[in-house]
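Section 5: illustrative case.
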């Protein structure tokens, strides 16, 4: 099973046709090189509405959005927060987040063990 997550560079919504085009290109390469053998399953999709936040660029892109974050500096180690901003130099970035009580926390991204966007159907 090969899973590939893609996004458009221009930030616009990903269409099914985009996934199909990428899938055909990857399949062509896999078949030509046989790197995955003769039998494989390839899934190409977007990261989804609850996508992981792994890099400072992800955090910057989603400022203003809700996220579920696991980090030692948070009370209880995990909380749903709103991303306020990202500060600092490359490699030393700090996410400024606001919890449900309105308290702001400064989280060095190196201290974040897991983070993903939070999606709520009732708000859409």
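Designed sequence:
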């Amino acid at each position: 099973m090969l899973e590939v997550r893609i996004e458009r560079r221009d930030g616009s919504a990903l269409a099914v046709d985009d996934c199909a085009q990428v899938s055909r290109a990857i399949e062509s390469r896999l078949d030509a090189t046989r790197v995955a053998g003769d039998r494989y399953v390839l899934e190409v999709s977007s990261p989804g509405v609850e996508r992981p936040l792994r890099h400072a660029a992800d955090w910057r892109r989603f400022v203003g959005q809700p996220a579920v974050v696991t980090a030692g500096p948070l009370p209880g180690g995990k909380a749903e927060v709103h991303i306020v901003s990202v500060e600092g130099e490359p490699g030393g970035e700090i996410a400024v987040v606001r919890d449900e009580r309105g308290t702001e926390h400064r989280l060095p991204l190196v201290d974040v063990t897991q983070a993903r966007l939070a999606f709520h159907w009732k708000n859409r």
